[in-house]
Amino acid sequence: MTDKKLGLLPRPLHWFPALMRHLLKNFPRILRILVALPVFPVWTIAAAAAGQPAAAVREIMIGELLPAGVDGQTVEVEGTVTAVSRVGGRLTLELSAGTGRINVTIADGLGLPGPLLMHSHVRATGICHGTYTVDGHWVAGSLFAPGSEAVRILDIAPTLWSEYPLTDLGELAHRLQKEGAAPLVHVRGVVHAGRPEGTATLEDGTGHLVIEHLTQSAVRANGPIEILGLLTRQGGDLKLWCGFSRPAIQGSAGETEALPVLTTAEQIHQLSARESQRSYPVRLRGIVTRVIPENHAIILQDFTRGIYVDRLTSAQRPQVGDYWEIEGTTDPGEYSPFVHATADRRRGLGYLPDPLRPSWDQMLNGSMHCQYVELEGFVTAARANQLTLFTRAGRVQITLDDPSASDLKPYEKAIVRVRGSLFNRWDTQTGRIRIGEFFVGAPTIFIDQEPLGDLLAAPIKRVSELLLFDPHAGPFQRVRVAGKVVHADGPLIFLMDEGGGLRLRLAAPKSLAPGDLVEATGFPEWSGPSPELQEAAVHLTGHAALPAPRRIPSAHLLREEWDSTLVTLEAELLQTSREGEADILQLQNGVHRFVARLPAGGAALPSLPAGSRLSLTGVYVGMGGNRAAGRPIDAFELRLNTAADVRVIARPAWWTISRMLAVIGLLLGVLFLALLWIRQLRRQVEERAGQLEREIGERQRIEQERTLEQERSRVARDLHDELGAGLTEVGMLGALARTSSLPEATKERYLAELTDKARQLVATLDEIVWAVNPRYDSVGSIAEYFSLYAQRFLELATVRCRLDIARDLPEHLVNSKMRHGLFLAFKEALNNIVRHARASEVTLTLAVLDRQLVLTVTDNGCGLAAVDQAPGQDGLAGITERIRSVGGRCLVESTPGTGTSLRFCIPLP
Predict the structure, then answer these.
(1) Which three-class secondary structure string do you get for 329-391?
(2) Secondary structure element (H or E) that encloses residue 856, with its range
(3) How far is CA 232 from the centre of its chain?
(4) Coil, helix or strand at residue 150
(5) 19-58: burial string, b at 16+ Cβ within 10 Å, e else
(6) Cβ atoms 47, 54 nearer than 8 A
(7) Distance CA 612, CA 135 (A)
(8) For 699, left (φ over 0), alpha (ψ -120 to 50), or beta?
(9) What torsion do the CA atoms of 410, 413, 414, 416 make, to the nearest 10 degrees?
(10) Of 491, 486, 482, nearest in space to 519 by CA
(11) Please, which residues bridge with residue 245 across strands?
């Protein structure tokens, strides 16, 4: 990186005017610096703004004692970033090197790419401030820098290259739009120098983009490189800034130029088997952490990780702790990539790196292979060159390659730390790791605690006291408990005292039975629902009756307080089974299902039918809980000691689930047959209904045709009877009126009769038309037509007509046959009144009562008894017959001398 990129401003020959211009231009930035450190010397800011250091830059080592006169001066340090904190524009980095560390604060850190900093190797320049360590040493504790240009990334974390996959340049615009501002991208292509100075252009065949502020200049001229950087858009162009580059590890198809040189162990470790076969050139420097003389090989560890190197050719014999330089080529190896050396030489003495303390997952997944580590644990067994180590994560078996480590018995039952190069053991056929088996090269064993002579000398703690404060507690601090065995299952023992229950995981087999009084010493473990003593040593002190079991209510079945204690509860038996020689009971209490186990060796359980109500006494074993993680148990099971722990409270009723299911099955079968029969019956009914519908439709059609024929016949008959005779009479009267021999008076009389007859024929025709017109098929139409006809007819007879018609007549339909029959009866009644009743007044009443049309014709004439009827005159009988023909009835009320009342009652549809 050039000075123009490292400084805020260029260095003019006369810097004061330029300083003032740039102070104004960078005023917001300088203000942020002043806010971050108000007492920062003004001369330092001015010098930084002018691009000139306030004093000579002194290089110091992280963690070294601070020399006199350095505090408050500009210094330069190198280290690996182990922590990053950003608050607004202010950035704080923790740099580590060896066992030392220093905090670097950048007032304006917006220009530093955060994703590239973590685990990267950087160089920082700033104002040094001394601090005291816990042991009273005065060291460089913090560094202050005004801007991001004071921090330079020398090498990024090697894992970043694999965490961010390669992206074609043509896809960057879409990715920027999708992910937002300044995503970190991994690209590859060929670099061409650009303008203005300090920029370049990267091309890969799919597109191009501008590169600014590249933090590493290891770029081959016109050669392919890979870049990790932040993607931005300025104007219409895509730009990559604050990027880090390396030679491209994999060339494009058909590339014939030399492969890039790999300079870190992590780069080799990240190669796939196919890539490592290409024999990439390697140039490494690092510390020898293990020597394998029979293979002329070493484990070399640089600041990234360790790697296996063989085929050493130097006459100098490597020693653990030497600093060596290796040149060679890559090879895929049987398990992981390694290096074949082509040139090697010793540079001098080195300092062994700080050992890593791997987690259990890291040891299992193989990522610690060839790494310099330290394992801490309790030695459970020691033989020849092998140690079985009980660690906080699990039990591991370590094989040591130290020829002098032939007698490891003194380490047995001691707490030790084993430091050296870790090798995973694997199956040479499948390449799979052998879980829990490791090989440690160049081991160093540190004893943290000598084997204790009397494990039962420590004071006894109750279960309830295990979580109390203990100033002597540690990751491998033994505790001693005393209690009564409530259940024994091989190496797993359940113990109770007054404070609760706990589990013992025996270090060596021991025969124990329920009721034994014991004292046990072991390492407490809290990852279960109750405390567990790992690697427990047990001393038998006596025997006594089992404690009274705790009764568990059904509402509180899932509680950690019951774990590892003797309890009693009731449940319903679902089914029984066997696992080997053990009896298994599947039980249910409310909504909870659980298992009760009776181990082999005692009396077998009697036959118990499903559905029995049982009372069980056993040890409660919670499942799924973790006190350390605050996770409650989600299930449990009971461990029974003898068959007597199961007591039958009630046998199942005859009406069992199996019988109920059988009855339900039978009923379902009957229901199925009934449904089939109903379906068949419904089909037959539908067929018969369709047939009846067709028959009814045919009959309706025939009836309609018959009704229509009758109506036509009636109309024809009316036309023939009423109009035919009348027209004949009209013709006769017209012929007589044309006779010349008749006197004029006679002719006039015939013409008058002809006129009257014509009027009668018109009225008759109107009646016929009204009777057949469907427009008048209503009660209102009947009331209107009957009123008009009565008034007109009675007026000609000089009889007064009174009408009593209801105003709110309902709109009921009345067919033409009914209307016609009613009208003929009504007409006949009026005709009889005019001819025989000698009445002066007629009252017509029409209403609808109880879905009946009631028509009443009342006169004030002489009554029926006073009427002289000539032989053959049967008008009242004809009226009654007409009303009966339309489904109605006729009521006659008459008083001699006062008049007659005819009431027609016609039912409405």
Answers:
(1) EEECCCCCCEEEEEEEEEEEECCCCCCECCCHHHHHHCCCCCCEEEEEEEEEEEECCEEEEEC
(2) strand 852-859
(3) 34
(4) helix
(5) beebbeebeebbebbeebbeebeeebbbbbbbbeeeeeee
(6) yes
(7) 71
(8) alpha
(9) 100
(10) 482
(11) 227
Q: Return the DSSP state at 813.
A: B
Report the distance separating Cα 335 and Cα 269, nearest Å. Answer: 11
Residue 268 CA to chain centroid, in angstroms? Answer: 40
Distance of CA 582 to the CA centre of its chain: 41
3-class SS of residue 880: helix
Residue with tokens 């307080």: 561
C-beta of residue 451 within 8 angstroms of C-beta of residue 381? no
Token pair 């973790």 is found at: 626
The SS3 assignment for 432 reads: coil
pTM summary value: 0.58
Q: What is the strand order of the sheet 852-859 is part of?
A: 800-805, 841-849, 852-859, 899-907, 889-895
Q: What pLDDT, on a 0 to 100 scale, did the predictor assign at position 780?
A: 81
Q: Given the structure tokens 């740039």, which residue do they identify?
A: 22
Q: Which of 905, 900, 853 is nearest to 883 (CA)?
A: 905
Joined together, the tokens standing for residue 618 give 């056993």
For residue 174, the Cα-to-chain-centroid distance in whole angstroms is 28
244 Cβ contact partners less than 8 Å away, ≥ 6 residues apart: 116, 153, 156, 214, 215, 216, 227, 228, 229
Tokens standing for 212?
A: 């600014």
C-alpha R_g of the chain: 58
Query: Which one, of 855, 867, 866, 836, lies nearest residue 901 by Cα?
Result: 855
Which residues have CB under 8 Å from 890's CB, separation 6+?
A: 825, 879, 880, 883, 884, 902, 903, 904, 905
Name the residue type at position 860.
N
Taking alpha carbons only, the member of 163, 204, 205, 200 closest to residue 184 is 163
Confidence tier at 48 by pLDDT (50, 70, 90)? very low
Residues in the chain: 909
Residue 168: Cβ-neighbour burial (10 angstroms; 0-12, 13-18, 19+): middle
Residue 8 has pLDDT above 60, yes or no: no
Burial class (CB in 10 A: 0-12, 13-18, 19+), 141: middle
Selection from 278, 282, 276 nearest residue 263 by Cα: 282
Contact at 8 Å (CB) between 120 and 81? Answer: yes
Model pLDDT for residues 885-899, shown as the tens digit of each residue: 888 899 998 888 888
pLDDT, tens digit (0-9, with 9 covering 90-100), for 547-603: 999 999 888 899 888 999 999 999 999 999 888 888 899 999 988 999 999 988 777
Residue whose C-alpha is closest to residue 377's, from 319, 327, 447, 314: 447
DSSP per-residue string spanning 633-698: P-EEEEE-SSGGGEEEEEPPPSS-HHHHHHHHHHHHHHHHHHHHHHHHHHHHHHHHHHHHHHHHHH
